[in-house]
Amino acid sequence: MSDEVVLSCDNVSRTFVVGAGFMNRGRAFKAVDRVSLSIRRGETLAIVGESGSGKTTLARMLLGVLPPSEGTIAIGGKPIDGYDRLSLARVVQPIFQDPYSSLNPRKTVEQIIEAPLIVHGTAAADRTARVRRMMDSVGLSLRLIHSYGNQLSGGQRQRVAIARALVMQPAIVVCDEPTSALDVSVQAQILNLLVDLRQEFNLTYVFISHDLGVVDYIAADIAVMYLGQVIEYGKAANVLRHPQHPYTKVLLGSVLSPDPDQGLPDVQMKGGFPDIINPPSGCRFHPRCPSSLPLCAVEEPAARVTANGMAKCVLVASGSHA
Amino acid sequence: MSDLAQPSAPLLDVSNLVVDIKVSAGTLHAVNGVSFSVMPGETYCIVGESGCGKTVATLALMGLLPRSATVRADRIMFEGHDLQTLSQEQLSELRGNRIGMIFQDPMTSLNPVFTVGNQLMEPYLRHRNAGRREARERAEYLLEHVGIQAPRQRLAQFPHQLSGGLRQRVMIAMALMCEPALLIADEPTTALDVTVQVQILNLLAKLQREFKTALILITHDLGVVARLADRMSVMYAGRIVESGTAREIFKAPHHPYTRGLLDCIPVPGVHRRLGSIPGIVPSLIGESEGCQFRNRCSLASATCVHDDPPFRHLTTGNGYRCVIPPDAMANIARQVNPGGAP
Questions:
Q1: Which of A22, A66, A88, B17 could form a disulfide with A83 if both were Cys (CB 3.0 to 4.6 A apart)?
Q2: Which CATH number describes the domain made up of B1-98+178-342?
């Protein structure tokens, strides 16, 4: 690990227009709203939040497949729009949620892992060696090299997806819910593999997940998103032990650890998930917040420095464990 | 949790359930000799990973499997009737009436072309011989009970106008329309966000207390089981490998698979390398002998290859299926886990 920042976002927003048509300009909404983050080499930043929080939109921008509407993303100190597609692919690679739909069923394991090498013009002899080395690193038996995706189990498929992502030796891997389609016993195998590979290849992960147990296991830093905004950001160990923002507290309180001595938690959160197209005024969490003040409906809270890092809430006292 | 001390007869008593499914490669032994019983008002959880047979077993009870499946059992007694002897008409009289079902995916299990109200009222009109007005009142009452605001307006809406959490609440209300004695919920919260999951589970627990409904909850999530179950079964490859009171199983799991599963769960604030169960679930197509878990088991020996492991009963009333007897298993557990806790 070093202090070198490999990936940073500065006030990144992404606006989508919905309902547009003939004679109708539609309505714009911000799926990601002024997000600033940075990740150092070899570290893992987890982005957590529920559906509609904008975490996948953010991931797509980090992968360079979706340009930000505002703000800048820099990779290795260089703005992301300064990279062409191939050079960006050498630095950032994705691992997706569903290994059943993210692998081409008409290609063998070898063809899938080899594809990025062909695109980047690696010599044939070199390719075979690198595919085999990669299969070994991700724990895939070489017997499977000519198998097709549908002959593999979910865990094996996710290993193929990981091998494909790592074969170009990228610095950064963006993992979008990489284990949520897997059974728990397989999830544990894949998480341990990701931890080992991070060490072996000095990888930097952006790890998107809704599972705080998984996040605490793999990530050093954590950014909690709600309706497009990062509402708390800091060291995972601190944020998960002393959450500052009321939403982080609710999220953490909803985790069901396998402890038969505890009943179901009572989640103090009002209402349903708000309409993302018409987000609430002031603090976006205020209609559901168990401790909201009249002020919260009017004024958007500024990012405050806390003992953990940052939290966007007027109730958070700067620099203390509330 | 419900009162376990009541000495009444079980509401549902299943003995030696076998489900075979014809597939192109042969016969898939999806469920292989499963026995369990559910008391009135209790929460019974069936936990296991994909393909272990937990869903097929419950669909078999309800007579909802396709023709390619053959279902056999020594008995499937529900409220004093053997479900195997009932005709399709008699079974469909039970479904939605005495037995309610909630499925995993509220997106696909509601019909997109009918309003919420129509779908809610349908089982009531069908089973209760009631008028539309009465059915509508009941539907409104239940929507309000499952925490839906402005129920009257919701009745006129279509499923696509509701969020995932709301749809699942509608499913629960629909399952409760006829006050069933038994509610079967198959992964009811798996497709939902964590905060919504907790709300829905709290709702299920509250309604269950209120309507004194027994609940069979099928899930892969041991966190849900620990917080909700009175009794439980752990299924692996078509068999129950451990069963009994949930508290005992979480405090002192006996079967190596149960112990492995508990080691696999990452818990916030608990830092340790995750245990993992090596290998994958065996194919259930064709004949097999011995213990199905042996290829992934760190305790497997030569006996596991041929011997069908016996189901061993513990003094606590729990039991597990393994060749290793309880005292030897307790010793192994102590060596692996000197602290005693999983």
A1: A88
A2: 3.40.50.300
Strands A221-226 and A229-235 come out as antiparallel
Identity of the residue numbered A161: A
In three-state secondary structure terms, A224 is strand
What are the residues of chain A with a beta carbon less than 8 Å away from any beta carbon of chain B?
50-51, 153-156, 183-189, 191-192, 210-217, 240-241, 250-260, 262-267, 269, 272-273
Question: What stretch of H or E contains B21?
Answer: strand B12-23
Put simply, the answer to whether A184 touches B228 (Cβ < 8 Å) is: no
CATH number, residue A292: 3.40.50.300
**Which of helix, strand or coil describes residue B294?**
helix
Calculate Rg over the CA atoms of chain A. 21
pLDDT in tens, chain B (342 residues): 444 555 578 999 999 999 999 999 899 999 999 999 999 999 999 999 888 999 999 999 988 899 999 999 999 999 999 999 999 899 988 998 999 999 877 778 899 999 999 999 998 998 988 899 999 999 999 998 888 888 899 999 999 888 888 888 899 999 999 999 999 999 998 878 888 889 889 989 998 999 899 999 999 999 999 999 999 999 999 999 999 999 999 999 999 999 999 999 998 877 788 888 888 888 899 888 899 999 999 999 999 999 889 999 998 889 999 999 999 988 887 776 544 344
The 3-state DSSP composition of chain B as helix, strand, coil percent (nearest 5) reads: 35, 20, 40
Distance from CA of A130 to the nearest CA of B (A): 25
Q: How many CB atoms lie within 10 A of CB B100?
A: 24
A73 DSSP β-pair partners: A9
Residue whose pair of structure tokens reads 């569903």 in the numeric block = A98
Q: Which two tokens stand for residue A41?
A: 């080499």
Report whether A231 contacts A247 (CB < 8 A): yes
Cα(B262)–Cα(B141) distance, integer angstroms: 40
Q: Evaluate whether residue A142 is within a structural domain.
A: yes
Please check the confidence at residue A182 and state whether its pLDDT lies above 90: no
Q: Which of B337, B244, B240, B236 is nearest to B292 (CA)?
A: B236
Q: How many helices (H) and strands (E) does chain A have?
A: 9, 12
